[in-house]
Design brief:
single chain; alpha/beta; D-Maltodextrin-Binding Protein, domain 2; Double Stranded RNA Binding Domain; five-stranded mixed beta sheet; 32% helix; binds the ligand NCc1[nH]cc(CCC(=O)O)c1CC(=O)O; Porphobilinogen deaminase
Length: 308
């Protein structure tokens, strides 16, 4: 059989993730796997906040083009970067076991954002992080921070910020865990839908590969992420919305928390919900997400969303 080819972005994080999946496919299924590195639009646009660039799935379109024309068979994504609706002809064949879903605080001098002096400068371009930081500390000055993980850390080290917020999972994958000063608990800084999990995308018609890859599914992670992603989907979600959704297991029940802020007026109070349900399958997980959307709408979510 021919090599299985993984299309991947070329950031250090994307390569780590692709190599991780390559190694698993080799070890567990004896497949011969190689990587096809690609630069995406999202990698090229470094000067503007992604939320202003707008396009959904900025990081995935080129990879899908490679799957479409057969140059590659599989794309490995950070699930939180995958749009809620895939284009026709593509499926998420697996969601793998999630590592640490939390956001991390990185700073040379301050152990937590709560220790910062009045008006301190925090770097992040994620509206989700902006609205939750301001809910903790309305006095903070939030400044944009773009680029891959190494770039963001370099900008912090160059002195432009008192601290920055990054996903713990990305830092851990790159061996940068020692940079983490603290991890936010998931109630005060609710993670993004899918944060910390890897999603494997293939063509819908790739029956054999789909069957193989389905064996990498981690069901508890999949169900949690289905609930989270349904919140995003139900609010017309894109990464440009200040929306957080995180689910975790408490015994056999899934506990889902979500928060919505106002991207235009980021100091407006957050809308928050927390719901728990016994969940056994994808439909029940999505139903839990849909209930969270209904609860947010009952709190006035429409007034927080960009006019359609
Ligand atoms: N938006 C970029 C991105 N996509 C995935 C991760 C981290 C790894 C993950 O969440 O799986 C990051 C970096 C960050 O948000 O700090």
């Amino acid at each position: 059989m021919n090599d299985t080819v993984i299309a991947t972005r070329e950031s250090r994080l994307a390569l780590w993730q692709a190599e991780h999946v390559r190694d698993l496919l080799q070890q567990r299924f004896g497949l011969a796997v190689r990587l096809l590195g690609m630069t995406t639009r999202g990698d090229q646009i470094l000067d503007r906040a992604l939320s202003k660039v707008g396009g959904k799935g900025l990081f995935v379109k080129e990879l899908e083009a490679a799957l479409e024309d057969g140059r590659a068979h599989l794309a490995v994504h950070s699930l939180k970067d995958v749009p809620m609706e895939l284009p026709p002809g593509f499926v998420l064949a697996a969601v793998m076991e999630r590592e640490d879903p939390r956001d991390a605080w990185v700073s040379a001098r301050h152990a937590s954002p709560l220790d910062l002096p009045q008006g301190a400068v925090v770097g992040t371009s994620s509206l989700r992080r902006v609205v939750q930081l301001l809910a903790m500390r309305p006095d903070l000055r939030i400044e944009p921070l773009r680029g891959n993980l190494d770039t963001r850390l370099r900008k912090l080290d160059e002195g432009g910020y008192d601290g920055i917020v990054l996903a713990a999972a990305g830092l851990m994958r790159l061996g940068l865990e020692s940079r983490i000063r603290m991890r936010f608990d998931v109630d005060t800084m609710i993670p993004a839908a899918g944060q910390g999990a890897l999603g494997l995308e293939v063509r819908e018609d790739a029956a054999d590969l789909r069957a193989t890859i389905a064996r990498l599914v981690h069901a508890p992670t999949l169900l949690a992420c289905e609930a989270e992603r349904e919140v995003s989907r139900g609010l017309g979600g894109s990464c440009s919305m200040p929306l957080a959704a995180h689910a975790h297991w408490v015994g056999s029940e899934l506990k889902l928390a979500a928060a919505l802020g106002d991207g235009v007026a980021p100091t407006r109070p957050l809308l928050k919900v927390e719901l728990t349900a016994a969940v056994q399958g994808v439909d029940e997980a999505r139903a839990l997400g849909a209930r969270a959307v209904a609860a947010l709408r009952a709190q006035g979510a429409a007034g927080y969303l960009p006019a359609a």
